[in-house]
């Protein structure tokens, strides 16, 4: 269930992202959705893997607590295919989930990310490659050290990029003229809506050799972290060639970059109604809130392990929520209130933080009270209310989703202005 919930959207703080009318939507909006999804999902993976490594370094590679930590890593990072603990020679000694236990004993020492980690003794995010699981995928490899600082092994978190991106693409891009594809620095296609392209290399595969403009476009996308251009290539479905115009942006983790490209097929009728639909936005903000809760859970786990006090954990959680941005001009955000109505985080209104707003009323709606009550329901809930946009005084109609994080006693929310 957790994996299904995670899939639709894992980007942070879409928050009060105000969409333009359908006819005004641009590829930049879609690019930002995918960029933030990739960036924040990778950060979540990095945080969860580090949490597991901290336990394994204390307990040893095959201790009971180490195995539990690996199981928690798999359970708390729903897009993972599997994860494993490798010994110093690169052999998988513990694997999760149980269905992948047959991989224990597999020697991964010849894989590039394992060799790179053993040389640099730093975390590595791999390029796209054919894994022992028999599918193309990507691995985050994290070193494990002994108490004396000796490298004794590593933790491997393996995932398929199509599981990472497909649910978002299916929600956002259906029935539009926009397409999304993603490559790494080597030109390997790590995601494309046409599954036949995943795992191919734009610079070497026969499919692309008849389209030099496409190759040049990819070269520019790798060279520059952001930009735009045009090229000819096969339309979606790999049928006839068509002119495409696109723009790109990059995300990175541990010195590995992904280059996300959004293109528009020219000359074909399309609509962005799906993108702006209430159901699509509801799906997005619901999963935004669930993702934020998962990050707070990771911070709370550090408190449970004794790394810092509960007050310090709450401060870190508040700082995290306060810093999250998304959307046009980075205007999206999260907020949080205690179950008693004391505001913890409200981006743009720091004077409100620490005050009780439980009885706040706009246009006859006690919106904070309702947001808290909806958030306390099993699985959280949606609230329709009124609230001024940033920099404005006149309230606008707004729709939010809120969810309780019980360990802190906070109700965390995010939302959007349905300006469509």
Can you tag this structure with a few keywords?
single chain, Beta-Lactamase, six-stranded antiparallel β-sheet
* CATH topology descriptor of the largest domain: Beta-Lactamase
Distance between the termini: 32 Å
For the biggest sheet, the summary is: 6 strands, mixed
Element-level helix/strand string: HEHHEEHEEEEHEEHEEEHHHEEHEEE
Classify the helix fraction into a percent range: 25-40%
Task: Indicate the structural class.
Answer: alpha+beta
Helices and strands in order, then pairings?
Elements: H1 2-8, E1 17-18, H2 27-59, H3 64-76, E2 80-87, E3 92-96, H4 112-120, E4 124-125, E5 129-130, E6 136-145, E7 151-159, H5 161-172, E8 178-184, E9 189-192, H6 212-223, E10 226-234, E11 241-253, E12 256-265, H7 273-276, H8 278-304, H9 310-323, E13 335-338, E14 343-346, H10 367-376, E15 381-388, E16 395-405, E17 410-417
Parallel strand pairs: 1-17
Antiparallel strand pairs: 2-3, 2-7, 4-6, 5-6, 6-7, 8-9, 8-12, 10-11, 11-12, 13-14, 13-17, 15-16, 16-17
